[in-house]
Design goal:
64% helix
Length: 111
C-alpha cells in the first residue's frame, strides 16, 4: 500500500477571486417628451439637413470633376504649345541653313 500512496499526486486548485466590477456610469438624462407635431417638425428638419448635405457632396464631386478635366486639358494645351514652339524654331533654323548653306565643317559658304 505504501507504493500506491507514493504514486498518487494531489491536485490543488487555487481559487482566485475576481475583482469586483466597476460601477456603471450614470445614464444620460432624457430630453423633454415631445408631442406629435414637434416630432414631425424635427423629422422634417433632419430630412432637409440630409438633402442639403447630399447636394453639397454632389457639388463638391462636380467641382472635382471639372478641376480634373481642366487640368488634363491644360496639360494638353501645354504639350501643344511646346510642340508648336519646337516646330517654329526648326523652321527658322532650316530657313537659315538654306539661305546660306553649310560646308562639311559646318561653316557658312561665302557667295
Amino acid at each position: 500500500m505504501e507504493e500506491g500512496k507514493r504514486n498518487v499526486k494531489r491536485v490543488v486548485r487555487v481559487v482566485r477571486k475576481k475583482p469586483p466590477k466597476p460601477p456603471r456610469p450614470p445614464q444620460p438624462h432624457r430630453g423633454f417628451s415631445l408631442d406629435a407635431a414637434d416630432e414631425k417638425l424635427i423629422k422634417e428638419l433632419a430630412q432637409l439637413a440630409m438633402i442639403k448635405r447630399a447636394r453639397i457632396e454632389r457639388m463638391k464631386a462636380l467641382m472635382q470633376k471639372k478641376a480634373s478635366k481642366a487640368a488634363s486639358s491644360s496639360s494638353n494645351a501645354t504639350l501643344f504649345g511646346m510642340i508648336f514652339t519646337i516646330v517654329f524654331f526648326l523652321i527658322i533654323l532650316f530657313q537659315d541653313t538654306r539661305k546660306f548653306g553649310f560646308t562639311k565643317e559646318f561653316g557658312y559658304l561665302k557667295e
